[in-house]
């Protein structure tokens, strides 16, 4: 079925959910009734770039609040991911990770850029220049909140919002204590110090910083990382101005896979790549100005600048070439919000210009007796190119209430992304000095200078129906897309001279309900998604975009206040992610088989016990289900359940002591299992570890 026909079918399904003869009516206000578990009046910001109630949102949006983030005290973003239904972020080496939201854990071409990472609503990377490990560039540890959209986002966001969007919200001057300090220590020479300061009286500025030194629990895997966020609030003319700065610096000794079936059990601390490293720095500066244009109209302008540089040894490749890449971006996000009848209309224009470069250099001959590898992967420069990119996007998103119980939301986005590629070496697949490789030519292929562009439109339509002050139903049809990334277009192999790629496209339908039943807060969602033009590398080593996948699942999120002292939070996901095409060359793919790295079942549960006003315990369990490790569905990981224990002791009005025990039962497990090149490979999970934190907070 063609994408347009599928969308029409999904749209018809959505529209039939409305009551006959009733278009949508004005949303009645949500009544709290004094029940602390009620969540419908929670404020979210990501879907509109302004504040609105969760009850009005026709999409699956979860939010982790600052208090919960501090209670978790995560050392890696993966420790937060299980608290979001349908989400799994793997912990690889150090701060590296891979993300899954209503998806498999995606790797290789087509993986990077399937998710949009934002900080304060601004993408942390330019479209087309993603970093699969992008979340280590943001200060999630000291965030005021983290919002996650599961599935395609709405019209306010463009390329890379296929499977999900994660927005890290930095603390403003009024968020939390005006003076907060913490010191944490753990095994394997782990130390972390944090501070967050603001001016208590004027509430104009806040600075938050985090310093981490980690000796590494695996051999030769230490991490040194620094993060800094600063905000300054003032006025400019008739509007309010926010200056936002974020910076991160990472110097990491990287540990590779351990190989061999179940090797995560027998040698979890081993590192066969002690020479591997990664160095990353990223800075972002933005100014957000909001001003009234009329009594019912607001203008928002957000100019920004980004800089990112990365060097890392590709230890996973024969010859271990060194890659350097950098990007510098200037952009402007604009939005006007105004009344349209009884509803609200958001419309805007986003502009971005990026300059980037990438080089790859191999120091010496491949240390392998395989003559083919030695001949086709020569020492010297493999790639050296520059890419300039332009993005222009216009959007509108309209929320329209009619009557007392119904609301409709619809939006559309038109986006243009253009690349101008310049090759700084000889084109083709000769060596850098122009001499040919034997055995069919060098592996690494450099295209001629060229320009490419992609113009894409997306659409979304959602309905909400308030059954009562305690229950809301919602449904949504949405499209997402992902433009081919620069590395997929210009970093070619095996003699492919042009990568003729199409943007990946996603059609999504979801149905859900959220609310509370007595002391139980709940959200229940079912979804179905189809992705076309999936980009992957074929048997010849060519980047192609003729793949397709299907994704369907059910997610449930619960919070139960058992008593004044006890509460239980749990979420569970049952999903199937399958191939929707056939391929016989290379690793065979069969329509209907499960995509590798896609557990059918995910879940977590947390029992919290308030022993007394100053003492809290939390017992947690994260469950990862069994799943295939290869596209042919021949090799499998059995899954695991990992327990944790956290305690928080209020020592005085200002001082708090935290204890966090990871892997309470000391179970052997794999954070990231894989099967490739005829062998099982794993990033082992950490054994039982205890971390202690002392924290000082000045009262408000």
UniProtKB/TrEMBL annotation:
- The TonB-dependent receptor-like beta-barrel domain extends over 217-664
N-terminal signal peptide? 1-25
Task: Name the Pfam families for this protein.
Answer: Plug, TonB_dep_Rec_b-barrel
UniProt keyword Iron, yes or no = yes
The family classification in the record reads: Belongs to the TonB-dependent receptor family.
Instruction: Tell me the lineage of the source organism.
Output: Bacteria, Pseudomonadati, Pseudomonadota, Gammaproteobacteria, Natronospirales
| InterPro entries noted in UniProt | Beta-barrel_TonB, Beta-barrel_TonB_sf, Plug_dom, Plug_dom_sf, TonB-dep_rcpt-like
**Where does it mainly reside?**
membrane
Q: Where is the TonB-dependent receptor plug domain?
A: 56-165
Q: What is this protein called?
A: Outer membrane receptor protein involved in Fe transport
Q: Which UniProt keywords apply?
A: Cell outer membrane, Ion transport, Iron, Iron transport, Membrane, Receptor, Signal, TonB box, Transmembrane, Transmembrane beta strand, Transport
**What topology does it adopt in the membrane?**
Multi-pass membrane protein
Q: Which SUPFAM superfamilies match?
A: Porins (SSF56935)
């Amino acid at each position: 079925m063609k994408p347009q026909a599928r969308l029409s079918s999904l749209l018809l399904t959505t529209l039939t959910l409305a009551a006959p003869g009733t278009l949508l009516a004005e949303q009645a206000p949500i009544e709290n009734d004094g029940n602390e578990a009620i969540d419908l009046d929670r404020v979210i910001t990501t879907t509109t770039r302004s504040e609105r109630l969760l009850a009005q949102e026709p999409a699956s949006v979860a939010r982790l609040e600052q208090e919960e983030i501090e209670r978790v005290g995560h050392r890696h973003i993966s420790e937060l991911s299980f608290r979001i239904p349908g989400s799994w972020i793997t912990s690889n080496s150090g701060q590296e990770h891979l993300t899954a939201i209503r998806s498999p854990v995606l790797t290789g071409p087509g993986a990077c850029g399937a998710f949009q990472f934002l900080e304060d609503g601004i993408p942390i990377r330019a479209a087309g220049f993603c970093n699969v490990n992008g979340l280590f560039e943001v200060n999630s540890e000291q965030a005021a909140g983290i919002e996650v959209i599961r599935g395609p986002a709405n019209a306010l966001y463009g390329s890379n919002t296929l499977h999900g969007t994660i927005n890290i919200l930095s603390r403003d001057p009024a968020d939390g204590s005006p003076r907060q300090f913490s010191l944490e220590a753990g095994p394997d020479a782990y130390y972390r110090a944090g501070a967050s300061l603001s001016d208590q009286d004027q509430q104009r500025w806040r600075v938050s910083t985090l310093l981490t030194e980690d000796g590494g629990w695996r051999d030769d895997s230490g991490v040194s990382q620094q993060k800094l966020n600063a905000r300054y609030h003032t006025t400019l003319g008739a509007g309010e101005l926010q200056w936002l700065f974020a910076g991160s610096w990472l110097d990491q000794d990287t540990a590779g896979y351990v190989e061999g079936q179940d090797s995560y059990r027998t040698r979890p601390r081993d590192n066969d790549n002690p020479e591997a490293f990664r160095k990353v720095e990223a800075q972002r500066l933005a100014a957000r100005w909001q001003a009234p244009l009329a009594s019912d109209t607001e203008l928002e302008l957000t100019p920004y600048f980004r800089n990112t540089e990365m060097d890392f040894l590709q230890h996973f490749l024969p010859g271990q070439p060194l890659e350097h890449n950098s990007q510098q971006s200037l952009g402007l996000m604009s939005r006007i919000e105004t009344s349209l009848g009884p509803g609200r209309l958001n419309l805007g224009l986003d502009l971005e210009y990026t300059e980037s470069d990438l080089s790859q250099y191999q120091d010496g001959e491949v240390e392998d007796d395989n003559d083919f590898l030695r001949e086709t992967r020569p020492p010297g420069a493999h790639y050296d190119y520059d890419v300039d990119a332009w993005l222009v996007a216009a959007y509108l998103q309209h929320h329209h209430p009619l009557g007392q119980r119904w609301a409709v939301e619809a939006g559309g986005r038109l986006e243009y992304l253009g690349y101008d590629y310049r090759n700084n070496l000889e084109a083709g697949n000769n060596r850098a000095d122009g001499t040919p490789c034997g055995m069919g030519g060098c592996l690494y292929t450099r295209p001629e200078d060229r320009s490419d562009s992609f113009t894409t439109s997306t659409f979304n339509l959602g309905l909400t129906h308030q059954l009562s002050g305690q229950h809301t139903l919602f449904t949504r049809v949405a499209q997402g897309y992902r433009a081919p990334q620069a590395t997929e277009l210009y970093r070619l192999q095996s003699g492919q001279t042009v990568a003729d790629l199409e943007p990946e496209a996603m059609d999504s339908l979801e149905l859900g309900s959220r609310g509370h039943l007595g002391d139980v807060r709940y959200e229940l969602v079912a979804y179905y998604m189809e992705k076309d033009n999936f980009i992957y590398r074929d048997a010849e080593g060519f980047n192609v975009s003729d793949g397709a996948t299907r994704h369907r699942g059910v997610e449930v999120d619960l919070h139960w206040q058992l008593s004044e002292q006890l509460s239980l939070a749990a979420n569970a996901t049952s999903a199937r992610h399958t191939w929707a095409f056939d391929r016989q060359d290379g690793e065979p793919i069969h329509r209907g088989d499960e995509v590798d790295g896609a557990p059918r079942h995910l879940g977590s549960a947390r029992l919290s016990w308030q022993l007394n006003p100053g003492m809290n315990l939390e017992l947690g369990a994260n469950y990862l289900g069994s799943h295939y490790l290869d596209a042919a569905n021949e090799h499998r990981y059995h899954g695991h359940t990992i327990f944790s224990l956290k305690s928080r002791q209020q020592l005085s009005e200002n001082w708090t002591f935290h204890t966090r025990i990871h892997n309470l039962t000391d179970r052997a497990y794999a954070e990231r299992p894989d099967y490739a090149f005829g062998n099982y490979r794993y990033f082992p999970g950490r054994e039982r570890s205890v971390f202690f934190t002392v924290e000082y907070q000045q009262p408000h």
